[in-house]
Amino acid sequence: MAAMRARHKIRAPRRGLNAAKTDDFDSLWTVLSSSLTEIHTKNASTLSFEELYRNAYRIVLMMRGDDLYESVKKLEKDWLRDTVQKRITDSISSSLVRAQESTDIQDQSEERRAAGEKFMGVLKEAWEDHQLCMGMITDVLMYMDRIISTDKSKPSIYIVSMGLFRDYVLRAPVRPDSPITVADVLESTVLFMISLERVGHIIERPLIRHCISMLEGLYESEKEEGEKLYLSTFEPAFIKTSKEFYQAEGRRLLEIGDATTFCRISSQRITEEQERCLSTLAMMTEPKVLEVLDNELIRKNIDEVVMLEGTGVRHMLDHNLLEGLRSVYSLNARVDPKKDSLARVVNKRIVELGKEINASSIVVAQAAQPTKDAKDAKDAGTEKKEKGKEKEKPVNQQTLSAIQWVDDILALKRQFDTVWEQSFLSDQGLQSSIMASFANFINMNPRSSEYLSLFFDENLKKGIKGKTESEVDTLLDNGITLLRYIKDKDLFETYYKKHLSRRLLMKRSASTDAERQMISKMKMEVGNQFTQRIEAMFKDMTVSEDLTANYKSHIARSADPDQKPVDLEINVLTSTMWPMEIMANTKDGVVQLPCIFPREIENLKQSFEKFYLDKHSGRKLSWQAGMGTADIRATFKRSNGKVQKHEINVSTYMMVILLLFNDLPDGKSLSFEEIEERTRIPKNDLIRNLQSLALVAKTRILRKSPMSREINPADRFSFNHEFQSPFVKVRIGVVAGAKVEDQEQRKETEKKMADERGGSIEAAIVRIMKQRKKLTHSQLMTETLTQLSTRFVPDVSMVKKRIESLIDREYLERLSEEPPTYGYVA
Amino acid sequence: MRFRVILTSCFRADRRSGRNIRGPHSALTDFLASNNISAAQIRDEYDRRVADATRQAAEEEEAATLDREEAEYEPTPDPESPEDKSKKRKRQQAIEKIKKSKEFARRKARRTGEPDDDDDALANTMISEKQRPNPGQLDNCEICGKRFTVTAYSKTGPSGGLLCADCSKKHVDGGKKGPVKKRSSGIGRRKNQSNLLDGMASHGTQSLLETCIKKVADNIDDVEEFGDLPPPVMHRLSQILSRKRAVTSKTLDLFLRPSHREINIYDCARLDTDDYHKILASMPRLTRLNLRFVTPMKDRVFQYMIDRDMNIQDLHLDSPNLVTDDCWRQVFTELGPRLQSLKLWNIDSAFDDETMQIMCKSCTGLRRLKLKYLWKIGDKALESIATLKNLEHLSLHFSQETNPEPLLQVITEVAPKLRSLSLEEFRLADDRLLQHIHEHCHHLSKLRITKNDLFTDKELAALFRGWSNPALRFVDFNNLRDVDMSNPAGPPEPVGLASDGFIALMEHSGSKIETLNIASCRHISHAAYEEVFSEHKRYPELKYLDIAFQGVVDDYLAQCIFRCCPALTRLVVFGCFKIRDLRVPKGVAVIGTMGAKLKVDGITQKEIV
Amino acid sequence: MADSTSEYVTLVSCDGFEFILPRSTACISGTIRRMLDPASKFSEALTGRCVLETLTGVVLEKVCEYFFYNEKHKDQANVPDMDIPPELCLELLMAADYLDT
C-alpha cells in the first residue's frame, strides 16, 4: 500500500477505450438517431441502454451537447409530425369532423359515439406510447440533461417532447387546411360523450379519463408558470356546456312542476357530477361544476320549487313529508347558508296555522260569551242536579278555549320540532326563524299572556292530579316553551300572580312541589327578577303559617276564658308583592271604607293586630275581607220544630252578612240597602255574595223576596230555616267572577300594566343615565330597549314620554340638540 | 478468459503469497476455489497496475516506505519460535477465539483499505494486547528488565512487551515510533462542525463523484491531465482547489480546455498577468469568464480580448483593480453589446460613474448585473442602471451611501422583467422602495433586501398582501430591524421585518419558498412564530432557514419549524440561546447552537463550541 | 441467466470481469438504475446484465466496493469517505460521473 502512496503522476483515463469507434458527432448521432427511432417503433429490446447512453455521453463530453439536444428535438418533432399525427388524423372519421360543426347532440349519436371512441382510443394509445418512449429516451439521454440543464436555461428533453406532442399532434389540423385541430375534436367528442351520459347512456369512462389525464399532463408553455391544457382549454368548455345543460334542465324540471321530483333529480345530478369528476374528468373540476349546478339548477329555481302549488313546501308541511322537506333543505343549504327560500315558506305556513289557532280560540270564546249569562242562570237552576262530575270541568268556556289554544300551539310546535329535527337537520338558523314565527303569531293574540297563565292555573289546580313527576315536568316545560315566545312577559307575570294568589289563598293549588318547580323553570327561562315577587308570595304564605300557629298559642296562653274561642287562620301578605286587585282598597280613586265586622270578629281582629304589631312595629295591617273564608256553625229551626245543624264554609263577607241575621229576630228581614249600610261591603262583592247565599239553590241560606234572578237594592233577605243539605259540612262558594277577564277588566289590567311599565321604563332610564352620565337620544333608546326586552317590548313613544317627564322632573337635562343628548342630574 | 466474482461484502480478501501462516479460507476464497478460479489472478492484475504506477518512483522512497510499512504494524512474536507445543496450542485456541469475537470483526473493519490486512496478524496483535498486565500491576521492562508499575501511559517495546518510564523515553528518543494511533471510526468533531457549516448533514456516504473530486483535489499536484471531464465536474474541482488556494500557473493548465466555453476560477491570487493571457489564448471559444481575486489582471488582458474579438457573454470578475477606467470603457464599447451578464466585485481605484454610464449605454443586452463594493459609483450609477430595460437579475451592494430616489427610479424602470432583485445595505431606502416593488415587480422569485432600519413592519406586510407577484423562492431580509441600543424592544410601531411582515411573507410565499434568511430581524414575536409554524402549516420547499439572533426562538419553536418544513436541510440559529435541547430530524444541519444538546437519530452529541 | 425481476444483476467490465450483486445495491448508480428499470424495454432490463464498455475491471471493482460501502453506511452519521487509491481517482471520477453515483 505504501508503495502506492509514492509520488507519481495521476494520468487521465485512457481516452478512446473503444478507440475503434470514431469520436465524431455525425457518426455517433447516426447510431443514436436510428436507435431512438427503434424505441419509437417498440424495438427497444434489441438495443443496449449502455451503448446509447455511452454515445450520448461521448457527444456531451465533446461539448456537442447542445447539438445533440437540438437534434433529438428535431427527431422527435419529425416523428410526431410525420408518423403520429397522421395516425391520429386518420382515426378521425369525417363524421366526427362534420359533427364539429353541427350542434345537435342527438344527430346520429350512435355513429358519432363509435367514431369518437375509436379516435380517443388511438389518441390514448399514441399518448401512452409517447410517454413511455420519451421516458426511455430521457433515461438514455440523462447525461445530456444533467449537463445541459444545469443552468436551467433549457427545459429537460422530456418536457420539450411533451410540448412537441401538444404542438404537432394536438394542435395539428384534422385535415389539411382545416381550421379544426385534433384538440378541438377531442374536446367536442368528450363533451358529446358527457352529454350522452347526462341523458342516461353508458359511456366509456376510463377512455375519457385517459384523454383527460393527457390534457392534465400537458402545459400551455414549457415555462414553470405554464397552465395545464386541461385548465386552459377543456375545463372552460366543459363548464360552459354544463351551464347550458343545467339551465335547460332547470326549465324542464320546473315544467314537470313537482317539487319532490325536482329535489330528487337535483340530488341525483349532484352525485352524478361528483362521480363524473372523480372517474371521468378531474377532481379539481368538481367544485367548479358543482358551483354551476348550484347556480343554474338550484339557486335560480329554488324559490319557485319551494312555492310550487300543491307539491311545494306547504304541501310537504301539511302532509308531513319529512323526506321531501329534507331534500328541499339540503338543496337550499347548498346555495344559501341562511336557507331563505325555505325559511320564508315555513314561516309563512307557521303564521297561517297560528292565526287559525288564534281565530278558533276567539270563535270558541265568542260562542261562549253570549251564553255565559244564560249558563250562569242555568247553573243557578241546575246546580243541584249536576254534581261532582261537573266540578272536574273547566269552569267555563273561556278557560276551555284558553287551554285549547295553548294545546293547539303546543301540538303545532311539536309538529314543527319534528320537521326541524328530522328534515332540517337541527339547523340553527331555521330554528331561530321558526321560533320567530311562533312568537309572531302568538303575540298576535292579545290575550296570549292571559291564556298561557290560565293554562298553568288550570294544570296546577287540576291538570296535574294523578300524573307522574316526569309528565308534570313535560307539561310545564311545554308551557314554558310558549312563555319564551311571549313578548310582554310582564303582562304574563301580572296574570300569573293573579292566578297564583287565588290558588294560594283559596288553597286550590294541587301540589306545592309543582308550583315550586314551575317557579324554578320560569327563573331559568326569564330570569331572577321575574320570579322575585312570585317567590315572595310563597314566602308570605309560609310566614303566615308560622304566624297563625304562634298566634294560636299566644291566645291559648292569655285566653280570656269568657270569650268564645274563634279559630283564626291568617295570611299576612306583603302589599307590593301581591296582585293589585287583591290589595286594592281603593276603587276608581274612591277610598273604600273598611267593612264593618261584627263585634266578636272585631275583637279578634284587634287582638291579632295587637299581637302582630307587638312583633313588627311600624307596620300597617289592612284586612282584606274579600279574600278570606270562615266556618260558621249554623242552627236551622225547621218549621216542624226539628233543629238541624250545619257547618257552613263561607267567604268572610258572607260570614259578616250571615252574622247580621244572628241579631235579627226570626222572620224579620233585612233590605239590601240595610245590609250594605251595616256591613259596608263593596257593592259588587255584596251582590256576588248575596247571589251565592240567596240564589244558588244548593246553598240557599237566605231567602230573598221577591224571588228573582237579580239582586236589587230594594230586595229583602231573611234567614232560611228550611235550608236543606245532605251534608253536615256545606261549602258555599262565591259566585265566581268570570275567570277570563271581560272587556272592562281587561282595560283595567292594561291600564295598570301601562302604569307599571311607565315605572319600569323610568327606572331603566335612570339606571342607565346614572351609570353613563351623558348619552345621545338614540343610544339611550337602544340601551333602554335592550334592558327591558326580557320583560316586555316597550312602545317607543312611551319611552320618549318618560324621558320628557324625567326632564320635567329634573332627573335629566338636555345637553344639546344636535344630536339630541341628555345628561344625568345627580 | 472470463472470471466470475461474487462480491458479498465490500472487503476483498487478500492473501499475500509467501506468508507462512494462512488463516481459514474466507467464504469468497472458498467460492473462488470451488469454481477453479484463483483470487491471485485478480490480485495480479491489480498489482500490475500498481507496479506500472510506481515504476517511476525513486528507490529511496520505496525503501523508506517499506520501513514505514514495517513500523506500521505491531511486531508480533514469531509464531515459529520454539515455544513448547502446549503453549502454541493454547495460543492457537486463543487466536481462534479472538477471531470469533466481535472486537475482532470491528478492528478488521477499521483496517479496510489497507491491503496488508491479515486476519492472523490482527489476531496476534490482539492477543498480545490481551496478555499485557493492566495498569496498576507490576511488570518487567522489556528492555532493561527492571520491575515497574504499569500505567495507562506505559509504552510498548519493540517485541510487544511493556517498557519502564526511562526506557519509554529513550525508546521515543531513539526515533522509534510508538504504536500507530488508532484511527477513529468516524470523522472528527472539527470536521463534523466544518461539514455542518457547509450545510452537510452528516449521515450516509457522500457520492462517489464527490469523494473522487476531493481525492483528485488532494492530489492535484500529481495530476498531469484531467481528461474528458465535463464542465460541472471541472467547476466543482475549481471550487475545491480555490478553497485550498491551490490554483497556480501549473494547476491552471489543467483547466484550460480549448473546447470548453467557460472557465471558473474562484481564487486567482496566485496567477500572474501571463496566466490570464494563457486562459484567453488557449480557450478561443470562451463565452464565460468567471475569475475571482484577479488583482494582477491588467489592461492588456482586455486589450487581447478586444483584439481577438472574443465572444465573451458572461464576465464575472472580482477585484480587477489594475484595470483603468479607459480600458473598462473601451471593453464595454467594443464588447458590451454581447454581454449577457456582468458581475463585478471590489474595485476601488477605477470604475466611476462615467464608466458606469458608458457600460449601461453599450451593454444593452445585459440580463444579469451584479455590482458589489465598487467604491466610485453612487447615485449617478443608479440612474444609468435604470436604462437597462432587459435586466432580469439585479444585485447591488454599493459602498457609497445613495439617496432613495434614484433607487426608486431603477425599480420603476427595470422592474417589469426582473426575476431576482438584491439590494444590500441601502440604508437610506425607505417604505417607498417597498411600495415600488409591490407596484412594479410581478415576476420576482428571489428578493434580498438587507441592512436597513427605515422600513416599517406595516409596509413590509403590505408588500406581500395582495401582491400580484407569485410566491418567492428565495427571500433574504437579514438585518431589517430597528437599532436603538437604549430601546431593545423597538418602537411601538415596529420597524424592520417584525411579526406582521413575517406572517404576511409566509402567507404569500410559504408554498414555494426554498431559502429564507431573517437573521437579526429581532422584533418577530414568539406568537408570530407560533402562528407561522402552527400545526397545520407546511412549507414543503423550505430547505434553508436562517433565524440567527432571534432570541425568542426556543426548543418548542424549533420543533415547530422542523414539523412545518419537511425539506429543511439547514437551520442557522446563532445567538438563539433558548435552544437547549433539540431532536433534530435526519438530514437537517443545525448550525450555531451554543452548548445545546442535539439529538439526531438517537445519537446524542454534546456540542462544545 | 437473470431476468428483469431477478434479485441479482450482473455488471460486466469492458475487459470481461463480471460482478454479480444485488439489484438494489447496483441501483445506487442512477445510470444503472435507469438501465435496469423494468418499465423500460432495453436489453439490459430484460437480461439483468449490464455491459459497461467504458469501465475496466479494476475501476468497476472499486465502483462495486463503493456500492457496498454506500449501502452499509447509508443510515450512519459521520461516515468517513471511502478510501480511494490516488492513482485510480481520476478514472474513478470519470466512472462516477458516467454512472451518476
TrEMBL record, chain A:
Q: Does the keyword Ubl conjugation apply?
A: yes
**Mind telling me which GO cellular component terms the entry cites?**
cullin-RING ubiquitin ligase complex
- Protein name (database record): Cullin family profile domain-containing protein
**Could you tell me the keywords of this UniProt record?**
Isopeptide bond, Ubl conjugation
Q: Name one GO molecular function term.
A: ubiquitin protein ligase binding
Q: Where is the Cullin family profile domain?
A: 447-694
Q: Which PROSITE patterns match?
A: CULLIN_1, CULLIN_2
Q: Does the keyword Isomerase apply?
A: no
Task: Please tell me the species this chain comes from.
Answer: Penicillium cinerascens
Automatic annotation (TrEMBL), chain B:
Question: What residue spans carry the region label Disordered?
Answer: 51-121, 172-192
Q: Which Pfam families match?
A: zf_Tbcl_Rhp7
Biased region (Basic and acidic residues) positions are: 93-114
Name a single GO cellular component: SCF ubiquitin ligase complex
Biased amino acid composition, Acidic residues:
59-81
Q: Where is the composition biased (Basic residues)?
A: 178-192
Q: Matching SUPFAM superfamilies, A to Z?
A: RNI-like
Gene3D superfamilies in alphabetical order: Ribonuclease Inhibitor
Q: Which SMART domains match?
A: LRR_CC
Which GO BP terms apply? SCF-dependent proteasomal ubiquitin-dependent protein catabolic process
InterPro entries from the UniProt entry: Leu-rich_rpt_Cys-con_subtyp, LRR_dom_sf, Znf_Tbcl_Rhp7
DNA repair protein rhp7 treble clef domain residues are 135-170
> What is the protein name given in its UniProt record?
DNA repair protein rhp7 treble clef domain-containing protein
Q: Which organism is it from?
A: Penicillium cinerascens
Q: What is the lineage of its organism?
A: Eukaryota, Fungi, Dikarya, Ascomycota, Pezizomycotina
UniProtKB/TrEMBL annotation, chain C:
Its Gene Ontology cellular component terms are: nucleus
Give the record's GO biological process terms: ubiquitin-dependent protein catabolic process
Its localization reads:
Nucleus
Q: Does the keyword Membrane apply?
A: no
Chief location category = nucleus
The protein's matches in Gene3D superfamilies, at most eight in alphabetical order, are given as: Potassium Channel Kv1.1, Chain A
**Domain SKP1 component POZ intervals:** 8-70
Query: What start and end residues bound the annotated signal peptide?
Result: none
The protein's UniProt keywords, in alphabetical order, are: Nucleus
Q: What does this protein do?
A: Essential component of the SCF (SKP1-CUL1-F-box protein) E3 ubiquitin ligase complexes, which mediate the ubiquitination and subsequent proteasomal degradation of target proteins. Controls sulfur metabolite repression, probably by mediating the inactivation or degradation of the metR transcription factor.
The record's note on quaternary structure and interaction partners says: Component of the SCF (SKP1-CUL1-F-box protein) E3 ubiquitin ligase complexes.
Family under the similarity heading: Belongs to the SKP1 family.
Q: What is this protein called?
A: E3 ubiquitin ligase complex SCF subunit sconC
Q: In which organism is this protein found?
A: Penicillium cinerascens
